[in-house]
Design a protein that fits this description.
82 residues; alpha+beta; 3-stranded antiparallel sheet
Protein backbone atom coordinates (compact mmCIF):
# COMPACT_ATOMS: atom_id res chain seq x y z
CA UNK A 1 0.00 0.00 0.00
CA UNK A 2 1.14 3.49 -0.83
CA UNK A 3 -0.18 6.57 0.92
CA UNK A 4 -0.63 10.18 -0.10
CA UNK A 5 -1.09 12.78 2.64
CA UNK A 6 -3.38 15.73 1.86
CA UNK A 7 -3.10 18.77 4.14
CA UNK A 8 -5.42 21.75 3.69
CA UNK A 9 -3.80 25.13 3.14
CA UNK A 10 -4.56 27.85 5.68
CA UNK A 11 -5.94 30.44 3.28
CA UNK A 12 -9.40 28.86 2.78
CA UNK A 13 -12.59 28.82 4.82
CA UNK A 14 -13.76 25.71 6.63
CA UNK A 15 -16.83 25.29 4.43
CA UNK A 16 -14.77 25.60 1.23
CA UNK A 17 -12.25 23.11 2.63
CA UNK A 18 -15.02 20.55 3.23
CA UNK A 19 -16.46 21.10 -0.26
CA UNK A 20 -13.08 20.54 -1.90
CA UNK A 21 -12.41 17.58 0.40
CA UNK A 22 -15.54 15.92 -1.01
CA UNK A 23 -14.09 16.32 -4.51
CA UNK A 24 -10.79 14.86 -3.29
CA UNK A 25 -12.59 11.81 -1.88
CA UNK A 26 -14.40 11.40 -5.20
CA UNK A 27 -11.09 11.46 -7.04
CA UNK A 28 -9.65 8.79 -4.72
CA UNK A 29 -12.75 6.63 -5.18
CA UNK A 30 -12.58 6.86 -8.97
CA UNK A 31 -8.95 5.72 -8.92
CA UNK A 32 -8.95 2.95 -6.29
CA UNK A 33 -12.52 2.29 -5.14
CA UNK A 34 -14.24 2.91 -1.83
CA UNK A 35 -11.50 1.31 0.27
CA UNK A 36 -9.29 4.35 -0.39
CA UNK A 37 -11.73 6.67 1.42
CA UNK A 38 -12.65 4.46 4.38
CA UNK A 39 -12.98 6.68 7.47
CA UNK A 40 -12.29 9.93 5.59
CA UNK A 41 -14.90 12.29 7.08
CA UNK A 42 -15.10 16.06 7.36
CA UNK A 43 -15.01 15.85 11.16
CA UNK A 44 -11.84 13.79 11.11
CA UNK A 45 -10.12 16.22 8.72
CA UNK A 46 -11.03 19.13 11.01
CA UNK A 47 -9.80 17.28 14.11
CA UNK A 48 -6.55 15.82 12.76
CA UNK A 49 -5.65 18.52 10.23
CA UNK A 50 -4.71 16.17 7.38
CA UNK A 51 -5.92 13.03 5.64
CA UNK A 52 -3.94 10.07 4.33
CA UNK A 53 -5.29 8.20 1.33
CA UNK A 54 -3.91 4.68 0.91
CA UNK A 55 -3.81 3.04 -2.51
CA UNK A 56 -3.22 -0.58 -3.49
CA UNK A 57 -0.71 0.23 -6.22
CA UNK A 58 2.02 2.77 -6.79
CA UNK A 59 0.43 3.68 -10.12
CA UNK A 60 -2.85 4.59 -8.40
CA UNK A 61 -1.03 6.73 -5.85
CA UNK A 62 0.92 8.49 -8.60
CA UNK A 63 -2.29 9.18 -10.55
CA UNK A 64 -3.99 10.60 -7.43
CA UNK A 65 -0.98 12.77 -6.62
CA UNK A 66 -0.72 14.12 -10.16
CA UNK A 67 -4.45 14.79 -10.59
CA UNK A 68 -4.85 16.14 -7.07
CA UNK A 69 -2.02 18.64 -7.47
CA UNK A 70 -3.37 19.72 -10.86
CA UNK A 71 -7.00 20.17 -9.78
CA UNK A 72 -6.82 20.97 -6.06
CA UNK A 73 -3.23 22.13 -5.54
CA UNK A 74 -4.34 25.59 -4.51
CA UNK A 75 -6.44 24.13 -1.66
CA UNK A 76 -4.40 21.11 -0.47
CA UNK A 77 -0.70 20.27 -0.16
CA UNK A 78 0.13 16.71 -1.18
CA UNK A 79 3.03 14.59 0.02
CA UNK A 80 3.98 10.92 -0.25
CA UNK A 81 3.86 8.63 2.78
CA UNK A 82 6.37 5.80 2.84
Amino acid sequence: MTGIKATPRHNISTQAMFDYYSMLRGLATSIDGFKAIKGKTNARLARVGHSTFRFRTQAGANRFLRRGEKRLGDVFRFSRMR
